[in-house]
Every structure is written in structure tokens, then in C-alpha cells.
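Q: My labmate handed me this sequence with no annotations at all. I'd like to see what the chain might look like in three dimensions before we decide whether it's worth expressing. Could you predict it?
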Amino acid sequence: MKILAFSDLHLSRGHAADLVAASEDADLVIGAGDFCNHRQGLKQAMAMLDGITAPMIVVPGNAESDKELRNAVGTGATVLHGRGTEVEGLRIFGLGYGVPVTPFDDWSCDLSEAEAETLLNACTDADILITHSPPKGVADVTSQGASVGSTAIRAAIERLHPELVLCGHIHDSWGQRGMIGKTQVVNLGPTPNWFEAGP
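A: Here is what I predict for the chain of 199 residues:
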């Protein structure tokens, strides 16, 4: 299966156009959160992606809530937040929001590590884990050099051993990759990222 994945669109019309064009070659499209800005413009952001005809799986970032995203997506999209799905035998689990709690204003949709752990415990098996936030210690470094990833997400990866973890959130680490055991972790960013995966 040919997967196109991205994160942190943040209402960028140019990036949306590139993603729509690239999606013509995709069997599945994955969006790892932050489609809009500060809980504003979500319907506009999703409209920019209307040209994507492949099945799409998305998680909410900290810029939109789970409910807001569910209300904004089209019929071809599946929203995962503390839930899983299966696509052609590929087991996919998603967790959105900022983890741990961000220093941003009260517009930000965040989870504590304990809240994230509870939601991740619902997952018993996954080939791909989609999280808006990166795991602690991989692709999670800010421009100030701080590692701000999630310990709960890292623990879930160590427990589940998925083939692939797709995340975003930390803009300074866009494009960075790393390994946790045999699991590849990729901080996507808003440009097209390609993966091959199968059950």
C-alpha cells in the first residue's frame, strides 16, 4: 500500500495544493493533525484538501478538537483519537492533541501524559501509530534544544512495536526520523511524505 502522509498544514494553501496533487498516486492519505490555526479556519483547511479522493485517516492536532475535526471532514475521511481502524489488513491507531500539555493559551487541545496513557492503552496491536505529538527523545527537539515529546507515546511504542509512527507538532523537527527499537518514527511536516506498508 502506497501511503502519503503529512502534518501541520496550518491553512497553507500552497502545501494543500501539493498534497492534493501528490495524492493521485496514493492508496491511503494520513494527516497527523493541526490542519488550521488556533481553532480557527478548520472547514476552510479541509476544503483545501477536497481534491483528495483516496481514503484518508486523520487525527486532531492541538489546533483543532476531535469533535471539530469530525464535523469538518468529508465522507471519505476517518478521524482517530484514542481509536483504531483497519485498512486492507493494516492496523492503524491514532491519538491526537498536544502531549504533554503545551504552554500555549487555552485554545490548545492538549492531554496530560496520564490522559494520553489511558487512551493509548485501548490499543493492543498496531502496524502504524499516528500521533500528533512525537515520542520523547525522537524528532521532538525545539529550536532551543529542548526535548518536548511524550513519555506516554514512547511507552506505547515500546509496548506495541508498530512498524511506523507518524507524527508532527514540533515544527523545528519536521523531516526528522529516528528509531525506537524496530519502529521508525517520522515527524512529517506539511510536505508530501511517502511510505510503503502492508499487513
